[in-house]
Amino acid sequence: MERGAEQGKFIVLEGIDGSGKTSQIGPLTARLEGLGVRCLATREPTGGPVGSLIRQIFTGRVSADNRVIAALYAADRIDHLVNGVDGLLRQIDQGVTVVSDRYYFSSYAYHSVDMDMDWVIQANSVSAGLLRPTLTIFVDVPVEEALRRIRQNRQVQEIFDEEDRLRQTRELYFRAFERLRDVENVAVVDGCGTQEEVAQRIWAAAAPYFSQAGKEAP
Predict the structure, then answer these.
(1) b/e burial code for range 107-145 (CB count within 10 A of at least 16 → b)
(2) How far apart are CA 206 and CA 187, in angstroms?
(3) How many angstroms separate the Cα of 1 from the Cα of each of 34, 95, 109?
(4) Distances in Å between the alpha carbon of 129 and those of 34, 87, 89?
């Protein structure tokens, strides 16, 4: 699609660790592609240099203060948007719809456990100014269920997986949603049930943003 034609959408899936959001990226992208929507699936932290460092910190191979981690996330997010290889701004401007596993609400929630949310929001203000999501879908599950899934599916526990932290993080997600309700489009969906049931709830939230959805066979 030529520059200046209709831009792509930006759909973000959010949730605490163990919510199941990552497993929903593929089904949502496939459904959109089935409607003829050009899609790119991505994630944060990215696979770029800064994102790779963040992942090493999470698994304990590198040590860093939580304030450093928050700043690294902000830097990785800006690079995700503007890098010259596959930056999201360029993709969206060319008509590609981007479906992302996490964006700045993750920072607002996870990093505000350790520092003031005002600071975290300000640290991510460049990204927010460059690109706000068309829709943020929060896949919500009880903390107990999230922990059960984490213990069942992961051999390595990441530093943000402790129960108290997950509980605080979930609460901070909702605090951020309320705080930014006038500037952000957020849908909260129930993440319990089968993968197919959750996928259908996610699609019900996303479909109104795509005119092609109205042509989909029932």
Answers:
(1) bbbbbbbeeebeebbebbeebbeebbbbbbbbbbbebee
(2) 9
(3) 18, 6, 36
(4) 31, 15, 12
Task: Give the chain's count of helices (H) and strands (E).
Answer: 10, 5
Q: Is 187 helix (H, G, I), strand (E, B) or coil?
A: strand
Rounded Cα distance between 201 and 20, Å, is 13
pLDDT band at 157 (very low <50, low <70, confident <90, very high): low
Q: How does pLDDT run across 92-148, given as a tens digit for each residue?
A: 999 999 999 999 999 999 999 999 999 999 999 999 999 999 999 999 999 999 999
Tokens of 156: 């390595």
Q: Which helix (H) or strand (E) holds 166?
A: helix 163-179
209 and 135 in contact (C-beta within 8 Å)? Answer: yes
Mean pLDDT across 66-91: 96
Q: DSSP for 9-63?
A: PEEEEE--TTSS-HHHHHHHHHHHHHTT--EEEEESS-SSHHHHHHHHHHTTSS-
Greatest distance between any 2 Cα atoms in the chain: 52
Q: Is the pTM of this model over 0.70?
A: yes
Q: How far is CA 164 from the centre of its chain?
A: 21
Place of tokens 């992302």: 100
Model confidence at 217, pLDDT cuts 50, 70, 90, reads very low
φ, ψ dihedrals at 33, nearest 5°: -65, -35
3-state class (DSSP) for residue 99:
strand
